[in-house]
Specification:
Layout (H helix, E strand, L loop, with lengths): L13 E5 L7 E7 L2 E7 L4 H16 L20 E5 L9 H17 L20 E2 L2 E2 L5 H12 L7 E3 L9 E3 L4 E3 L6 E3 L16 H18 L4 H17 L1
Antiparallel strand pairs: 1-2, 2-3, 3-4, 5-6, 7-10, 8-9
Length: 249
């Protein structure tokens, strides 16, 4: 159905302009029921989208500021890969204080989601020590030496408690800050993993000690390299990982 599905949100629902930042999805601002919202069209399964929608609704009930899904006129939260979400006001974090507020928000996310079930089709960093594929990741596409280095970084997280991780909070474009709240947006890479992966923030805003920051930074670099392998950014992240893992031996 594609973008025709937007009519399920009402006869007056209309796209306004394409938004930057989407990689795996087509993201637009829209007007629904006279209000500005954000819509995302992708190829995720219904089970995947249901997991994301239920998570965001739960976090909203617990007091976090998140882009909750806006239901269709008949109550559905997505239709044929299309999701419409609440628009989040604010701008990106700019100061050390802003990033510390982001760290606090991430820790609240982690606290609220201990024991959360894994996103359908996804694998955690620990799972990838023993398997090669999961949503967005295919280790068989990487050179064998690259896989060894990624797994060496992830192995240092074994035994840690898991929870929901946002997946890409260190990108300023995925955070909206106002004077009284912090909103995390773009939950497309969210899954269950070790919280350290979320806490490699600019200026070490999460205040990790040197050892914890080194472990988290290596594991995060390995994850980003594996998710985006073969693009320029992934190769660069893998290069940093290679040097870091060599130093840690």
């Amino acid at each position: 159905m594609g973008w025709e599905a937007l009519g399920q949100w009402g006869e007056d629902a209309v796209r306004i302009e394409r938004l930057t930042g989407g990689v795996a999805n087509d993201v637009w601002s829209v007007r629904v029921h006279g209000q500005i919202a954000v819509t995302r069209l992708g190829s995720r399964s219904d089970a995947d989208l249901k997991w994301e929608a239920e998570l965001l609704q739960y976090l909203d009930r617990e007091g976090m500021t998140v882009p909750v899904p806006i239901p269709t006129t008949d109550g559905r939260l997505f239709v044929d890969g299309l999701v419409v979400m609440k628009y989040m006001e604010g701008g990106p974090p700019e100061t050390e204080s802003d990033w510390r507020r982001v760290a606090d928000t991430l820790r609240e996310l982690h606290r609220l989601t201990q024991g959360w079930p894994q996103r359908p089709g996804w694998r955690s960093s620990s799972d990838l020590l023993h398997t090669e594929t999961g949503t967005r990741i295919n280790l068989t596409a990487m050179p064998p030496e690259g896989v060894i280095r990624c797994r060496a970084a992830w192995a240092r997280l074994i035994g840690r408690q898991t929870c929901v991780v946002h997946g890409n909070p260190n990108s300023p474009g995925n955070v909206r800050i106002t004077a009284d709240r912090v909103a995390l947006i773009d939950w497309d890479e969210t899954h269950v993993d070790v919280p350290d992966l979320d806490l490699v923030l600019p200026g070490n805003a999460a205040d990790l000690d040197d050892g914890a920051h080194d472990i988290a930074a290596q594991a995060s670099a390995a994850w980003e390299a594996a998710v985006c392998w073969q693009d320029e950014y992934a190769v660069k992240r893998h290069g940093r990982l290679s040097r870091a893992v060599t130093r840690s031996r």
